[in-house]
Structures are given as C-alpha cells and as structure tokens.
Design a protein that fits this description.
The protein is of the alpha/beta class. 30% of the residues lie in helices and 24% in strands. The chain is built from 24 helices and 34 strands. Strands 9, 10, 11, 12, 13, 14, 15, 16, 17, 18 and 19 form an 11-stranded mixed β-sheet that branches. Helix 9 crosses helix 10, helix 11 crosses helix 24 and helix 18 runs parallel beside helix 22. It is globular and about 85 Å long. The termini are far apart.
Length: 771
C-alpha cells in the first residue's frame, strides 16, 4: 500500500521507485545495503546528482506504462540491471520510500557465485558493460557518469569475489580480455572512483592504477598529498604500520607486519626503525606483503612487508618512520593477526621486561614501543596493572591467566581433526613411550574411542577437545603438534580470545605436521605472514623450495623429517592387481553447506563433463575387456563430499566397484586421480599414477576449487595427464601391458622427490627434542 501511495503522489515525476533492501544470512543476521546512506529518506532523487545509488536489485516497483521497458530475455546475467537502468533513465530520477522492506536471503557459500563466474558469463558481462557505455552517453559522447558508476559497482563486487578475470582464457585471448576490462576502467572519471561509497580506499587505488595516469605528490611538514591533474587522490598525515606478529624470542622483540599507505601504490618508499630516539634510523628490508591480496583473493595493492628484531637488553624505545622521496613521515600502528597488542596502551611482560605500546612520541603523533626493566617491586606492580586490565576485559579470561604457570614440566599436545586419524596420531604413538620428562596428550573430539587405536596406558592420556583439562594443558604446554593449520583445530579457545587474553603469557611452539603435501597454490591460506605457525614438517625437496620461494618461510622454519604417517606405508609390498580411481570434489557441483552437511545439486552433477567422462570410463567396454583379460579390478572412490552421488554410478562390469571409507593404498598397482594430495602416497610407494581432469579448463578458471593453480603443475607430475575417457583408457592400457612400469621420466621424478624415506617419526622426535 505504501508503494501505491507513493506512486499516486508522484505519478508524473518518476517511473520507478525502490524501498529498503535487507539481507538475511544463515544466522538470521540482518544487513542493509550501502546505498541507503544515499537513499536515507523518502523522496525523489535525481540520478545524475546521485550516480552512486546504482539500483541493481529487484526491490523495485515500476509504473504500468503504455510504453513499458521489457527484460532482455537473451541475457543470463545483469538483465535486471539493464531493465532497472532503462526505467530510471527515462526521467533520470528514482523514487524511494522508507515505508516498505524487501528481505533477501543471501547464503555465504561460494557455490552461489557460480552463475556469475567469468567461465560462465564473461561474454555476457562484456555485453552488459558495452551496452551501458554505448547506450548512455553525455553531450560530449563519453559514457555517462551514471553508466560509469554502475560499471564500477559491478567491478568492485567482482574484485572482492575474484570474479573479474576469465582465467580459463590463455595467451592472446587472455591479454585481450584484460585490455577490455582495463578500457572500461580507463573510461571512468577519477572522481567517480574516488567518491564511490562502496569501494575500500585501497581498492580505489587499485582501479586508479589501471588508468596509467601521471600522478604527483606534494609534501608538507606533517602530511603529503597525491594528485593527478587537478584531482586529489589521497591526503595523508602519517603512514599506517599493520603489525601481524609481535613476540619475544630469546630476549629479542620480533616485530613483523606491513606498511599500508597510498604512497606505496605510486612511489618508492622505505621503512626505518628508530632505536632510543635516534633520528636517522635503520633502513629495513621490505618486500611485497602477502596481505597485498587485500580483501580479495588476488593482489590488489603494494603493501610492504617488514620484519625487525630488537635486543631487549639495550633498547628503551622503538619507533618507525617512512621515507617518501627523501621526506620522512611518522607512523601509526594497527595490531592484527597474532600480535600481542590488540588494544591501545596495552602491555605485556616477558621475563624481566615490560613492553608497552604508546601512541605518542617525541611531541609528534607517532606510535612507539617502550621497553622497561623495572625492579622487583615495579615489576610486580606492572604485572598487577596488566592483570587488572585483563580482568576488566574478561573475568573468565583473567581466571584462566592465573592458571598459566611460568615454569612447568614440558607438555606436548597432539591434534588431528574431528573424525580423522592422521600425522599427529602416528607421532603420538611413536613418542608416547619416550622417557624424556615430557608428558604427552592426544586430543580427541568425543569419548567414543576405538580401543584398537590406543593401548590401555595411552588411553589415560587422551583429552577431550574443548574440555577444562584441554584448556589447562593447552595454556601450559610447550609444543602443539597439529596435522591442520587452522587455529580452531588445536585451540580450545576462539582465535581472537586466545590472542587477546592469553597471547602474552603462552610459551608453546606450533608445529604443523601437515595432512598432505601442499601442491595447490594456496598462498593466501598458508603464507607465513598469514599463519600462526612456528615450524612446518616437510617431506620433499619440492616443498622446501616452494615454501621458501613462494610462501615466505625460511629454511629454519622447516623440519625435513617427512610426515609421520609415511612410516606406516608398506613400501616394497606386492600389489593385488587392483586399480584405484580417486578424484577430488568440485564446489560447483554440490550445494550449500547447511547444518554441516552439503546439499546435493544432482542436476548440475549429472550434466557435468566430470560425471559424464567418469561414467563413460567406468562403463567402457574397452575397460571391461582390459580388466577381464588381465584379471584386474578397479575401485572407484569418490571424495567424501561426493559420496552421496555414488548411487549415480552404476558400472556394468563386475570388476568395477564403487567403494567408500578408508583404503589400503599398498594393495593397488596404479592410481588415477586429479589434484588430490593422496597422489604423493603413491609416489612414496613408487607406484604409477595417471592424472585425469575432464574439466581442466573449468579448474583453471577457479570454478571447481578454492584454487585454480598448482605449485607443482600436472604437466610436471608423476604420470600422464589425460582430459577425457579415451585418453585415460589409452594410458591405462599402456601401463597394464607394460606390467605397471612407469615411464622413465616419471620414475626419475619419483626417485628424487622425497628427502628421506625412513624413520620419519624418529627424525621428527629428535628434531623437536634437540630444539
């Protein structure tokens, strides 16, 4: 009724009206759209004076006109935006009433983005942008500012979702696509980008850099300004240092973080550390920070990573400055990640030192660290002050802090993940009987323990995840050995709470055992800057090179012992005439995660090349003949996420089996897979491998997985790379005829891949004991 009333009152003024859009997520949390900072009260809005309204959603009501605007039914994406824009541009006005609401349930799962993925709709996206720029032009023939703002709005959300670039294209086609997108950005006026209420400031710089314009910088005593022509791009009074890690090790304060400043985006900058008020400072080595992939999966900015280590015995104050073309500027601090300073004027005590964060230095607005060496009475007073601060933040947290002992017998905790027996279990079994003064516990998720997995004595040292006992042992342990890097896997406390309440008092080392050899490009997940990890167990020469060159680790961060579970691989055992076919899952072929369970998308699965090619292979008469002739069997093991699709596979040959659950890999002569890290178990066994990826182009586009590249490309892997059922049959037939003997090139790669192939648990134990 309110919409009709509004139209009746403004019938000749406007053809389309909108009303409040309210998003609802899985937790029933409500969020509004940013456009309601512009549309903040009922009325008629001139679209040329409010270009960033960008009405793109269907919370609209249109006039019943004799000359209506119709949907373009040929479009699969943005047809609603064309429709809405055409209506608005008839009078260049939009109506808004605050007396109606439109509720939009929006699930956060990545699968909801499939229809907007460049692999599916890149050509349609180009058609949409071209249509906006061609149809709506100003008096000088330029794309209108309304069209510019709408293109920018779409590019912005696509940037954050990593849905701009068509990664499935290669060579000349990809270059042309990049140039096409760049041409749209270059056509957007600087002030349209800078005035957008939707863009993060640093994403504005990302888009401005596409314009390849000459920009200049103007220096003042306590601020600087960046501009191009007569348009101001940035105006800053200081530079922001984001500290991702602050900790004390061997009586040294280790400070790590990155410089986040618009100056970095357009000019060369240097970071200096100043000790005890020294003016000149020490120039720090900087590199591209992994956080430069800012609020996006792709690198958007040029944040500069730095690391500084200060000797607490000689330092009283540490401050920083930034040099921009010979001009020095002060810095402000922001603490994030695993930093110990999560609140202003916070402090912590390490041994005999009190380390404080201050936000004013030498009469200038510059943050700094202050290191105090008080006497016993002053140290006790400082300790009481810090504890009072923690008590004010959390009474429960303060109680737990009282239970942290500065000195206690060494405790090691071993963690796998719910429902998984992995490297932590095998290392625990190995270490448990050692008479070395260490008390060891294996963390379990429930009380139902398979008695065959643990001896009677070992069962006394099992602790339930999240229990009071787990919390107490965790707060006082010296090492955490975990097969999974996520803090939530091994910490009984929420991540932020852990750092804020206990970070300064904890003294354990995190040892990441891995649960497989990392070969997918997951830099944003596993880079050293982004992980709360002290040491990583590696098994191969490839990993050492990869972790150092691509993930930011040093050689000292790596333990080359090999994964503990490799001790249980039956190297040299005789296979049983069996073939294992074990592909990974695809996120585009299954539904959303609801109550910790994936919803099925059977139609998409059945229509996919992934299913069709696998089904064609499993039901191939040629495969059946090959298995019969050589007395072989083939087990098809779907990824656990896809196991509910097993019923859709109905092989005709009795020698082809659909299986689930755990498997004994040493019983198989050959493995067929795609990206699964299980492939390295077969490399360890020196058994032949065939890669089979019928949807490889979709993988390269990023549609099927959370990653779209491999650190170890399949073309450089340990077996033939096939893309359809016929190619797979050719390679399998060749292997069977040759007695499952891999080609020489693959044998050489297998022979040289692993660092060591014996006593992995013992080597890891020795390393951890000695260090």
């Amino acid at each position: 009724a309110s919409l009709v009333t509004f139209f009746d009152a403004n019938f000749d003024k406007v053809d389309l009206i909108t009303y409040n859009l309210i998003y609802i997520n899985e937790k029933n949390e409500l969020n509004s759209h940013e456009r309601y900072e512009i549309l903040n009260r009922s009325g008629i809005y001139d679209i040329d004076n409010n270009i960033h309204i960008t009405q793109t959603t269907m919370n609209i009501c249109v006039k019943n006109s004799k000359t209506p605007v119709l949907f373009d039914s040929t479009l699969k994406v943005a047809e609603d935006q064309f429709f809405i824009t055409d209506w608005i541009m008839k009078k260049h006005k939009i109506g808004f009433t605050e007396n109606a609401d439109y509720f939009y349930f929006r699930h956060s799962d990545a699968s909801s983005s499939t229809g907007n993925h460049p692999y599916i709709c890149f050509d349609q996206m180009i058609y949409f942008f071209d249509g906006l720029y061609d149809k709506y032009r100003d008096s000088k023939g330029k794309p209108s500012r309304v069209a510019q703002a709408l293109v920018l709005y779409n590019l912005n959300w696509r940037l954050k979702a990593d849905l701009i670039w068509p990664y499935h294209l290669q060579g000349k086609e990809m270059q042309e696509a990049r140039e096409k997108i760049a041409s749209y950005i270059k056509a957007i006026d600087d002030d349209v980008i800078l005035s957008s209420p939707y863009l993060d400031n640093f994403h504005k710089y990302y888009f401005l850099k596409f314009k390849e314009k000459q920009c200049n910088i103007c220096f003042a005593p306590q601020r600087f300004a960046i501009y191009s022509g007569d348009v101001l791009w940035a105006d800053e009074s200081n530079c922001l240092l984001v500290f991702t890690s602050t900790r004390v090790k061997d009586s040294k304060l280790v400070l790590e973080g990155f410089l986040k400043s618009p100056a970095c985006e357009f000019f060369d900058v240097d970071v200096y550390a100043h000790i005890n008020g020294e003016k000149r400072g020490i120039k720090l080595e900087t590199s591209l920070s992994f956080y430069s992939a800012y609020k996006s999966a792709i690198v958007t900015n040029n944040f500069r990573h730095f690391r500084y280590k200060a000797d607490l015995a000689t330092v009283q104050t540490i401050s920083f400055s930034v040099d921009i073309m010979g001009h020095r500027y002060s810095t402000k601090f922001f603490f994030a990640g695993s930093s110990l300073f999560l609140q202003k004027n916070n402090a912590f005590i390490s041994d005999k030192y009190v380390i404080r964060y201050r936000d004013y230095y030498d009469g200038r607005p510059s943050d700094y660290f202050n290191i105090e060496r008080p006497g016993k009475e002053e140290l006790a007073a400082a300790s009481s002050e810090i504890e009072r601060s923690h008590f004010q933040r959390s009474k429960g947290g303060a109680v737990y802090r009282k239970l942290i002992r500065k000195k206690c017998k060494p405790i090691w905790l071993y963690n796998d993940r719910h429902g998984v027996i992995d490297n932590a279990y095998y290392q625990f079994k190995h270490d448990f009987g050692k008479d070395d003064g260490v008390t060891r516990y294996y963390v379990i998720d429930n009380d139902e323990i398979n008695s065959e997995l643990f001896s009677k004595e070992e069962r006394k040292y099992l602790i339930k995840y999240g229990s009071l006992k787990h919390k107490l042992k965790f707060l006082n342990c010296s090492k955490v050995l975990t097969s999974f890097s996520s803090v939530s896997v091994y910490s009984p406390f929420p991540t932020v709470q852990l750092l804020a309440y206990y970070g300064d008092a904890l003294h354990f080392e995190i040892v990441y055992l891995q649960h497989g050899i990392l070969h997918a490009k997951l830099v944003n997940l596993y880079a050293k800057e982004r992980c709360v990890i002290d040491k990583i167990v590696v098994s191969s020469h490839f990993e050492i090179e990869n972790m150092i060159n691509n993930y930011g680790y040093s050689k000292e961060d790596l333990i080359p012992s090999g994964m503990p579970r490799y001790d249980y691989e039956k190297v040299g055992s005789v296979p049983e005439g069996k073939i294992l076919f074990s592909p990974s899952w695809r996120r585009n072929l299954i539904g959303e995660l609801v109550e910790n369970r994936r919803q099925l998308n059977e139609k998409a699965f059945l229509n996919s090349d992934f299913y069709k090619q696998i089904d064609a292979f499993l039901n191939s008469p040629r495969l059946a003949k090959l298995l019969d002739e050589y007395g072989l069997s083939l087990d098809f093991k779907n990824h656990p996420v896809f196991e509910e699709y097993n019923r859709l596979f109905q092989p005709k040959s009795s020698r082809v089996n659909i299986i689930s659950g755990s498997i004994e890999m040493d019983k198989y002569n050959v493995m067929i897979t795609d990206y699964s890290s299980i492939v390295f178990d077969f490399v360890y066994l020196k058994r032949p491998v065939i890669y089979f990826v019928p949807d490889y182009e979709m993988f390269r586009s990023g549609l099927t997985h959370t990653y779209r590249e491999l650190d170890l490309p399949l073309e450089e892997g340990f077996g033939a790379f096939t893309r359809n059922s016929d190619e797979l049959l050719d390679e399998l037939e060749k292997l069977v005829i040759n007695g499952f003997e891999p080609d020489e090139i693959y044998k050489k790669r297998m022979d040289s891949f692993f660092i060591t192939k014996e006593k992995h648990c013992e080597k890891l134990y020795n390393y951890l004991s000695e260090n």
